[in-house]
Amino acid sequence: MIFELMSKGTIVRLPDDRTGLPERKEVHVMLLLPFNRYILGTPGIRRTDEWVLGKLGSEETKEVFLYDSRAVVLALGDNGSVTLSRDVVANLRSHLFSQMPPPGEHLPAALIVRSLMAGGAPVDDEVVKSEQAFFEALDKDEMSRMAYWGIRFALSRGDYGAVTRVKTWLKNAMGVFEDGVPPKAWFSLTDLPGRKDITEMESYSFTLDDLQRMHSQSSRPVVLYSKTGYLILAEQPVDNTETAFRIWMYLPVQIWNELREKRKLSIREIVAATWGYLDALEAVVERGRYASGLQHFSPVNGTR
């Protein structure tokens, strides 16, 4: 796919068959920039995206990194720079992902999910080995399919903490979050979250004073009740560092009562299970960006 950056900062699609452009892999996205520059996106080793900035007529390229939530400034040598907006960056990445299979490997994720499936007929080894047959066996088990994508994506990143969280949700809290008001989570490295996140928390009847009071407590997790539900403050260490980031998690009263009073989960188990559900929900949305495959279904109620 080939695009051109317009003077207003938008991009337009060009015909794919164009001479004079650099050789490229079959799966690619190219954006033509001013002064004969371009950026080229191709699949990486782990089925993620890789981008380089180059100049037509030259073989020299420089690696650049694109993130959906950020604009990017590209240096064009003596000709200054050009800025790609967040929308343009997300658009380019989505076009590349739409040509790629989803990351991760099927079998490791399928084996983990099979070991956690509750009830129903067992899935035999031959079915597990085939992605198509596996999803046919889980035709009516939407939660297991959600867990599959959450675990598959986490394994592809080497994020074993996320694998544990999804397993905790599937084992201890499956079926809790799908109806009514969904849970919500915010994350911060600072003492308090950003202004936008605080505003969201205030919509659940938690004030800035409430958050400051929770943060002042020396032991974590901390739980605070309001008329709409419960707010939990927990901490998660960053691997191989002394740093920890903060998890602010909102649970409606109905969900809290089910997890805490009926299922007797600890606060840490509640955090892990809820976070695992949100991980799986996010993975379903992320999977939708990749090439059409065997599995399509709409995410259930929830937000992050």
Description:
This protein is α+β, with helices and mostly antiparallel strands and 304 residues long. The chain folds into two domains: 2-97, no CATH class; 106-287, no CATH class. Helix content is 37%, strand content 21%. The protein has ten helices and twelve strands. The chain has helices at 86-97, 106-116, 125-129, 131-137, 142-157, 160-172, 195-202, 208-215, 253-262, 267-287; strands at residues 2-5, 11-14, 29-32, 37-43, 49-55, 61-64, 72-75, 81-84, 184-188, 222-225, 229-237, 244-252. The strands form three sheets. A six-stranded mixed sheet has the order 2-1-3-4-5-6, covered by helices on one side. Helix 5 (142-157) runs antiparallel to helix 6. The radius of gyration is 23 Å and the shape is globular. It starts with a strand and ends in a 17-residue tail after the last helix. 28% of the residues are buried.
How would you state the average pLDDT, rounded?
88
Largest β-sheet summary: 6 strands, mixed
What is the first-to-last residue Cα distance?
A: 32 Å
Instruction: Please indicate the percent range of residues in DSSP E strands (runs of 2 or more).
Output: 15-25%
Please tell me the total number of domains. Answer: 2
Q: Helix amount, in percent?
A: 25-40%
Q: Poorly predicted ranges (pLDDT <50, ≥5 residues)?
A: 294-304
Shape: globular
What's the total count of β strands? 12
For the CA atoms, what is the radius of gyration? 23 Å
What structural class is derived from the secondary structure elements? Answer: alpha+beta
SSE series: EEEEEEEEHHHHHHEHHEEEHH
Strand order of the largest sheet: 2-1-3-4-5-6
Number of helices: 10
